[in-house]
Design goal:
By secondary structure, the protein is of the alpha/beta class.
Length: 286
């Protein structure tokens, strides 16, 4: 089949670096020949993981947290439909997109598959270019979702503009936990994952997938955004604000604040206060 043209795949950040890596796809297919064909066709663009049946696929989803799962439907032990249901009903994995492949035809099979919540569905035989395009679209959609959450968090950590179930509910819960512990300098990633009932690895993968940040960076960003709000809208000084948002060392607070906003917190506060005075004629009430 024709090799797909290079698509506009949005690369993923390598954890802890500013480099990029290929998105990871888990192929779950019991037909060795077809699975090998898919792997050979896709590995130029993606990092490929393999599973020969659904139960093995589920274990690899939990251990590896791929960026996308491509699964056959008809498999022993655990069908692709049941695998999709597990992925989409588990808080640790429901953010992972699923694309189902099947040679079965008929409305009943199609409806059964769609009820499990896959992100896409293709009937064999299919054109490889179409499969590649579907994969590319799903991964790009995930990147858009990630950017959207980043913007929502950046706008207002107290009032994230999210209303639906699923990934947005997870972000709401995470924000609520962080805000509840905002002034606690001992609050860390382990505390967050305990509150959210996730393993450390699951929390890392999920936060990274939805926000593009590690959990440590995510917590710090929320603290710094709240600090910016306090510096602008209250009469607390920089040191007081630092302690209010969980930094027990004002020097570290100033350094991270400058990395986030491009200026020291004292300059940020002076600038915002000056703007408030010029627009209202008085300082905002504490």
């Amino acid at each position: 089949m024709a090799n797909p043209k290079q698509g506009t795949l949005l690369p993923l950040a390598e954890p802890g670096t500013h480099l990029f890596k290929k998105p990871t796809i888990l192929l779950v297919e019991d037909n060795d020949e077809f699975r090998t064909y898919l792997k050979n066709s896709l590995e130029e663009h993606f990092t490929i993981l393999e599973a020969v049946q659904g139960m093995e696929g589920w274990k690899k989803v939990l251990s590896s947290h791929p960026d996308l799962v491509v699964s056959d439907i008809s498999m022993p032990l655990l069908s692709g439909i049941e695998l999709c249901r597990k992925i989409k009903t588990d808080a640790r994995t429901r953010h992972i997109p699923v694309l189902l492949l099947t040679a079965l035809e008929g409305e009943e099979t199609e409806l059964q598959a769609l009820e499990t919540g896959p992100n896409d569905y293709i009937t064999k035989p299919f054109n490889y270019d179409i499969l590649f395009s579907r994969i590319k679209n799903l991964l790009n959609y995930q990147s858009v979702v990630r950017e959207t959450f980043q913007k929502q968090v950046a706008v207002n950590p107290s009032e994230p503009a999210v209303e639906e179930e699923g990934e947005d509910q997870f972000i709401r819960k995470a924000l609520a936990v962080i805000e509840k512990n905002m002034a606690n300098p001992e609050f860390n990633v382990d505390n967050l994952r305990q509150e959210l009932l996730l393993s450390r690895t699951s929390l890392y993968k999920k936060v990274l997938a939805l926000t593009g940040q590690t959990p440590i960076e995510f917590i710090r960003q929320i603290r710094l955004k709240r600090a910016a709000q306090l510096l602008e809208k209250s009469n607390h000084n920089v040191t007081e604000v630092a302690y209010m948002v969980g930094f027990n060392n004002p020097k570290y607070f100033a350094r991270y604040f400058k990395e986030q906003f491009g200026q020291l917190p004292s300059h940020y506060q002076q600038e915002r206060k000056a703007k408030n005075v010029s627009s209202t004629g008085s300082f905002p009430a504490d």
